[in-house]
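As the next step, I needed to go through one protein, both as residues and as discrete backbone shape codes, included below for the reader:
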Amino acid sequence: MKYVAGEYDVAVIGAGHAGCEAALASARLGKKTIVFASNLDTVAYLACNPSIGGTAKGNIVKEIDALGGEMAVNADKALIQLRMLNRGKGPAVHCPRAQVDKIRYHLEMKKNLENTENLYLRQGEVTDLVPGGVKLSNGLEFFAPCVIIATGVYLNSKTIVGECIKDSGPNGFAPSKELSESLEKAGFALRRFKTGTPARINSRSVNFSMLEVQKADEGMPPLSFLSDKLPEEQGDCHLTWTTKKTHGIIMKNIHRAPMFSGNIEGTGARYCPSVEDKVMRFADKERHQIFLEPESLETNEIYVQGVSTSMPADVQEQIYRSIPGLEESEIMRDAYAIEYDCIDPTELFPSLMCKRIKGLFFAGQINGTSGYEEAAAQGLLAGINAVRFLDGKEPFVLDRASSYIGVLIDDLTTKGTNEPYRMMTGRAEYRLLLRQDNADSRLTELGREIGLVGDGRWELYLKKQSEIRQVKEKLNELKKPKEFEKLFDGKGENMPPVGMRLCDMLKRGNIFIDDLKAHFGIFGGFSAAALEECEIDVKYEGYIDRQAEQIEQFRKTENKKLPEDIDYNKIKGLRLEARQKLNQIRPLNLGQASRISGISPADVTVLMVYLSLREKHGQI
């Protein structure tokens, strides 16, 4: 007779970044939620780089925060250093990146899970999906009508250091082996992906005088819209480079590299190559950039970003000691590659619920993505939609015009991925509107409607929106030439013969909102965040208006829903490939159908005619 250890509304398998956001969202929305971690020391573990954010990823973090998620709040608590990437370029690609204390990040998130109402944290390996719930390796079963699988890179994982191959998760944590078998029995065709991480070295063995110091950026707002300030003092990172000697060591030992010897079978991330891959692919480059990043303020371990490798341990010693400043470096943890199982994300609806098994959701790297931020975003959406499924509500789906999260999930569920997916600004068609500074303006009202945005966050949002309205009203004020002649002369701008509105001055290339603030003595008392958003909206008004028009056209096809009962095999005029792809993906609307690989404009036209005929005959 089986023993049911507990009954819950939602069970989350895995307490990494996807699992934490999923569990917190579910519990905060009132559902009794249990989250399983094979080891409680893996909760929100930063298995690779000790950072949150980065190019496009920083936008995702801000969006998670705007919707009521936890990642940015937790990162601010554990902050070591904060920088804005791409500051030399336009605001569409400005992306915050936080260097964080990985020990504190884990502890703060674990504390959050432990103290959230309706949320139960349980150590145990889930080995099987059983009717109405999950089963652990110790034989206990837990009932839950909704299950979210967020196993990260632990699913049937192996770590590889040269010829040393172990059944292991990151950092020596135990892998999850039996769950893969359960998923295959359930009909999922698993695929094999790979990622990797560099060595950790002892800071006492580094000659920092040989390295370039990388300071935090001044004047940065916190990652979270809830955080009111940053630490007064922030830590440093350091920069160095590989050398010809480094490349020579790699080339001499390339036959021992697992990715070339055949010991690695999984598909790796194209945009995050190992150092041996970079040396082979970019043979013309004399050196590659390396960042030394502290793992924590409580340890001497340093993460050597840019030297990810799966070379044998003896070769790793030679590689690291060939780098300026690291000649005497002591490796504390070897670099390694890790292979793991994942699913084909086209088996999921945009809600991240499985198409074949109602109530089963997937989030994070099991869906073929890479990165903490992409995982957390999926976890948040899966947690929200698990609750909405239980409540009989329509799923919460973000489209490509609303957010990077919408781009991410649409790419996965519509196009799928043949390699670890990484978000980049270039994937977003409307990135000038999907900026990091306006994530709250885009998404916080949606978070409030869902129920994740509390009163405190809501009041801050309303205050900022009120400030934005007041600033924009002020920018419409007309000034006489004599009032701004000195400003224009000082900035090298040509004087107009008549008066100008402040907003028109702001459109000049050399004039910024801080210049107007200083010259006219205005905008006192308004937050830097409100001023920044207004400045960008004004300076890029023409481009923003053009993208808004493009979005209007985009939403026309997104709003043309495709009925769930369509048998695409019966639609005359569709090519065979189109019928197969449409039946497989089951797109929700015409826009999603048009983005499926293999669907031609002619196929879309056939679908439009089909929808018109159905509507004419009253079938829609």
User: Anything to note?
Assistant: The mean pLDDT is 95. The first strand starts at residue 4 and ends at 7. The first helix runs from residue 17 to 28. The domain at 560-616 is CATH 1.10.150.570 (DNA polymerase; domain 1).
